[in-house]
Design the sequence.
């Protein structure tokens, strides 16, 4: 055996080991790749293909019309209303959920007793079926026998037909959306608060930041930045996907004042049976959600790691 043969054998063994590890890696990720293709890529491709047709649900024939559905959407007042209402709804729900969630988390964490009870109470709406709770909200907001109007009348405040007024229906839906997502934000913020080392607060005290607001500004909020960004992403995506409350409480009314993108998609596809038109709405909805998720993820990844 020459002096070069052991080196050649060793190199071959490394190559074979590398090939085996590569094959093992592909085998491990194969199930996930198959699920991604079957559950996401293929359905998304099918929706995109249907959006380029004039197919009506149940029809045996269809015609390719290209981007005509998208051009019709841009000229459709109902779709523009859905787009505006969804954006307004998200702008109301997301900031209020983040602010209230953080406030309640700080309040619960500062207390010494009943922490588990308060966490469970606030998280309960997130665990409850929103369809069932929407019926409860409908009873509470009834214009004549609802508890909300009765309480308002008892203290001399003006009452309203909350779910039938064009100026009140969207804010009321935003209140319900905030109430439903608040528990999730609260639990995530509580987990973030638990992860903040006490040493940071001790160092802040030594540096003179011993007040509540100073500790909040110097230590708590910067340390919670990654959690806050994650909560922002989750709550934003949930707000964009609102459908249950609109379907049960308002059905997009009055006069499209509460119609949102997912409800518009459902109405066009399954009530009006214009499946191609509804698929075009689905494509736009998907583009908006993916763009927002990509932007927020980019912000998360671009942040320097906290020491």
Sequence:
């Amino acid at each position: 055996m020459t002096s070069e043969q052991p080196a050649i054998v060793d190199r071959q063994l490394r190559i074979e080991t590398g090939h085996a590890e590569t094959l093992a890696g592909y085998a491990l990720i194969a199930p996930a790749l198959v699920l991604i293709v079957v559950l996401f890529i293929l359905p998304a491709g099918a929706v995109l293909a249907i959006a380029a047709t004039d197919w009506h649900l149940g029809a045996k024939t269809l015609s390719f019309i290209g981007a005509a559905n998208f051009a019709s959407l841009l000229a459709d007042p109902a779709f523009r209303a859905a787009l505006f209402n969804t954006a307004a709804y998200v702008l109301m729900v997301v900031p209020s959920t983040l602010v209230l969630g953080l406030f309640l988390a700080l309040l619960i964490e500062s207390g010494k007793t009943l922490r588990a009870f308060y966490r469970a109470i606030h998280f309960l709406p997130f665990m409850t079926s929103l369809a069932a709770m929407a019926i409860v909200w409908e009873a509470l907001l009834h214009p004549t026998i609802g508890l909300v109007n009765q309480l308002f009348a008892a203290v001399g405040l003006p009452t309203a037909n909350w779910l039938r007024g064009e100026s009140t229906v969207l804010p009321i839906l935003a209140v319900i959306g905030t109430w439903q997502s608040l528990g999730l934000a609260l639990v995530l913020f509580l987990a973030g608060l638990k992860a903040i080392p006490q040493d940071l607060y001790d160092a802040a005290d030594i540096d003179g930041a011993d007040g509540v607001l100073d500790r909040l500004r110097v230590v708590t909020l910067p340390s919670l930045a990654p959690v806050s960004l994650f909560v922002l992403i989750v709550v934003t995506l949930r707000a964009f996907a609102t459908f249950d409350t609109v379907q049960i409480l308002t059905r997009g009314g009055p006069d499209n004042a509460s119609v949102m993108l997912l409800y518009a998609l459902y109405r066009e596809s399954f009530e009006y049976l214009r499946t191609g038109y509804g698929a075009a709405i689905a494509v736009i909805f998907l583009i908006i959600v993916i763009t927002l998720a990509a932007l927020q993820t980019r912000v998360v990844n671009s942040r320097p790691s906290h020491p």
The chain has two domains: 1-51, 69-302. The mean pLDDT is 86. DSSP finds 13 helices and no strands in the chain. The CA atoms of residues 269 and 275 lie 4 Å apart.
